[in-house]
Structures are given as C-alpha cells and as structure tokens.
Amino acid sequence: MQNELSVGFMGSGRFAARCLELLSGGLRPSWVVTNAPKPSGRGLKLQNTPVWDTALALGLPTFTTERLSRDDERIEWIKAARPDVILVIDFGHLVKEPLLSLPRYGCINIHPSKLPQYRGSAPIQRALMDGVTESAVSIFRLDAGMDSGPILAQPPLVIEASDDVNSLFEKAAASGTEALLSLLCGTPPESWRFTEQDETKATCAPKIDKNEGRIDWNATAFEIVNKIRGIGTAPGVFCMARGKRLRVHKAEAVPAAALACGALRITENGPVVGCKEGALLLKEVQPEGKKTQPASDWARGARLAEGEAIE
Asked: For residue 67, what are the contacts with CB-CB under 8 A and spacing of at least 6?
C-alpha cells in the first residue's frame, strides 16, 4: 500500500520530528515542508526546526516556508506534486484551502489528545497539569477549524503518575504513528471511515504562557506536582526565595501537619513547603544564575531557616 500512495509531510516541532522518525520505518514521504529557521537562544542564532534536522538525517527532500498561507510559490509546488495524502503534524501553521482539499485522501493529522478534548497547541502539557489519567491519540482529517475535523482512529493513551511531558510525548508519538502506519500501509483509503467530533464536548489546550509556571502555594501539593509534570521542562516551574527566582525541576507531594502555605520546613530528606493540602518536598532545584542541584544542597548552602516563607 505504501508505494501506491504519494505522501507529503508538513511539520516543525519536536513531536512532529519524532513522528517522522518513527513513520520512516514503514513509509517514506515524498517530501517534507517545515518552518523556516528562526532566531533562538542568547545569541539569537538562526535555528532549524527539529523536523528539518530529522528529515535531513533521513535523506528526505525538505523545504522551508515562512508563512505557508501566503507562500504562493510553495503552494503551487505542492499542487504540482499532486500528493494523495499530506500528513500535517505539529506544524505551526493553520493549513487552509486550496491545500485542505488538494490531496485525494485529505490532510491527516496526529493529535496527542482524545479529541474533541484538548484542542490546540499544548494538549499533552494541559492534560498533565489537569491530572488526567486516561487520554488518547487522535488520527483525524483537517478541516477549516482548529483540530475539529472528523476522526479516523483514536487509540487509547494511559497517563501514569510517573509520566511527564517527555515520556508522554514519546508514548503519544509511538501510539499515533503505529495507528497511522496501519492505515496508510494496511488499509485501502476507500475503506477509511471517519467519525465527526461531538462539538458539545470540545475543550481547548492553548499555548503555555511563561507566567503559568509561577507556583501558587495556595494550590494543593498534587496540583503543583502536576504543573511540574506538564511544564517543568519548558517553559519551567518556579517560585521566589529571598527575592530570587528558584526553578523547581523535581518535587514530591508529601503529608504535612500545621505548615502554612509557603512556609518552609527543613527535613533530612530536603526542604518541604506548605500547600493548601499537603506539602511539597523539593528534590531538585535551580537557583537564579546557578546550575541545577539537589534541593537539600541548596537549602544547606542558603542556610534557610525553619518557618521562612517561600513566595
């Protein structure tokens, strides 16, 4: 089946790059389109997308675009390529007509959520922050809306308490590409059956704002742990200690008695901070301007006092 379909790939981010890498074990896209390099880091050097690097390593013909909807030259090129299917994953562009209806079998997306839940750019992060335990990966056909097209397949995705954004990205990419390969390589497109999404159950997963990483000690310890699981890697979770930013990389919810919200207790296992319910045992932190270190080392070096407030 693979050789009978002309497949194009459009993607940019880390999730798309991992899906492309896994897909390459079963099919070879005819071409790849990704975002143009953008300035990044302290030196604002131009950085290629993760998909560019992966496609280059796979030896795939790869092209970039600044803004696809206004890139008439690239759109005409895709028209001339006459793909049967375009895979659009973690692309960063809203795909519009004429591309939506150009491929015979549509533009197909892998979205790491149980659509119509968590539509948008941060479904995995938002699901972790909400403490979700059962989700799915959705294979669906793009339409003019935001992640609103009909669903082709939806394998389940179990979220373990030990999962963070990195492990869940990997699990979702593996599950999604396995389902997509089964369809592309094992099922004639004429047999594909799509199911419309139930709009009454739609929820949104908007892009993460850096300020969302600020810890609110009036939240429960489990809510704060879930925040670290979801966005601890990027953009990061932090609080303020003695007026300086303290990034929290790892922490654990623990019982606590008579400890006010934000108040510090020094234990043999490390510093513990009071929350609305329970307390947070800090395990790995990064003080402002310093490297990541065990929280117990930080507390010892800073000579933190029992009962001291963390904001």
From this structure: 93
Q: 146's torsion region: left (phi>0), alpha (psi -120 to 50) or beta? A: beta
pLDDT digits (tens, 9 = 90+) for 209-239: 999 999 999 999 999 999 999 999 999 999 9
Q: How far apart are CA 110 and CA 139, in angstroms?
A: 5
Cβ 241 vs Cβ 309: under 8 Å: no
Task: Report whether 285 contacts 295 (CB < 8 A).
Answer: yes
CA 105, 142, 169: angle at the middle one, nearest 5?
110
Q: What are phi and psi of 243, to 5 degrees?
A: 80, 0
11-63 pLDDT, tens per residue?
999 999 999 999 998 999 999 999 999 887 777 888 999 999 999 999 999 99
- The pLDDT value recorded for residue 3 is 52
141-158 burial, b if ≥16 CB within 10 A, otherwise e? Answer: bbbeeebbbbbbbbeebe
Report residue 47 as tokens: 């950085």
User: In terms of Cα–Cα distance, which of 4, 60, 65, 68 is closest to 35?
Assistant: 65
Using a cut of 0.90, tell me whether the model's pTM lies above it.
yes
CA-CA distance, 113 to 155, in Å (whole number)? 10
